[in-house]
Design goal:
Blueprint: E1 8-12, H1 16-27, E2 31-36, H2 60-74, E3 77-80, E4 83-89, E5 92-97, E6 102-104, E7 106-109, E8 125-128, E9 131-134, E10 146-148, H3 159-176, E11 185-188, E12 203-206, H4 208-226
Parallel strand pairs: 1-2, 1-7, 2-3, 7-10, 11-12
Antiparallel strand pairs: 4-5, 5-6, 8-9
Helix pairs in contact: 1-2, 1-3
């Protein structure tokens, strides 16, 4: 483990699974870095219409932008790079990229179904046609400190499923670490303390005034994102290049 007070986590991939994992990891106190190469398959989607909370659907690239903003607000940092390999390094890992190498106590790989980035590690894989999936249980692999989320873990294509699996994988990592954590929940003032309980780790009580301020900020940010159509077109399938 590193000498830093906060454990370090590197998330490989910035699709729904990676972004969701980054949000939960950063909010739990991990020093979180997301390695982004811009290749999320969701960018190919024309219009996403089955993600909960968007009655008329949502632009897929907009959803990714919003997810990145949320991860950054939670404390995650982003690095634009291609990942060549994830290697063991004593009690931790080194994520090898085409830029700087990134040391980490924990790694969440949330990329496409290609396990080549973890070839140097002792993980169990399954071949299905041209795809290779890593065997996991709640995101855990057979390598301590290494987690796999989303499509690489054999999850279905659906965006909401991968986002949920990214969160579940991050929770597995949090619970396996020494970070004190109950669950991530913003409660109204007095929800715990009004019953004579301490506020559990990871939870927060806020006043009614603070709740209204956070709602105002939420509405402001959403208006900024939804004010104009997203400028980017769907990314073509690689076979169309």
């Amino acid at each position: 483990m590193s000498d830093k007070t906060e454990p370090t986590a590197v998330v490989v991939g910035a699709g729904p699974a990676g972004l969701s994992a980054a949000v939960f990891a950063a909010r739990a106190g991990f020093e979180t870095t997301v390695v982004e190469d811009g290749s999320s398959i969701l960018r190919r989607n024309a219009h996403l219409e089955n993600f909960l909370g968007f009655p008329a659907g949502v632009n897929s690239r907009l959803l990714l932008d919003m997810g990145r903003e949320q991860a950054e607000r939670s404390g995650a940092e982003f690095v634009e790079a291609d990942v060549d390999a994830v290697e063991g390094d004593g009690d931790g890992f080194v994520v090898r990229t085409d830029g700087d190498d990134l040391p980490a106590d924990y790694v969440v790989v949330a990329s496409w179904a290609d396990a080549s980035v973890v070839d140097t590690l002792d993980v169990e894989t399954t071949e299905q046609g041209s795809k290779t999936y890593v065997e996991t249980e709640d995101g855990r692999t057979g390598v301590e400190g290494l987690y796999v989320a989303g499509r690489l873990a054999g999850q279905p294509h659906q965006t909401i499923v991968n986002a949920g699996h990214g969160a579940k994988t991050a929770l597995s990592m949090i619970h396996d670490s020494d970070v004190p954590f109950y669950h991530d929940w913003i409660a109204p003032e007095g929800y715990f303390t009004g019953r004579g309980r301490d506020v559990p780790p990871g939870c927060e009580e806020i006043t009614e005034e603070e709740r209204r301020e956070r709602e105002k900020e939420s509405l402001r940010v959403m208006r900024e994102f939804l004010e104009e159509p997203h400028p980017d077109e769907p990314t073509p399938h690689p076979s169309q290049d």
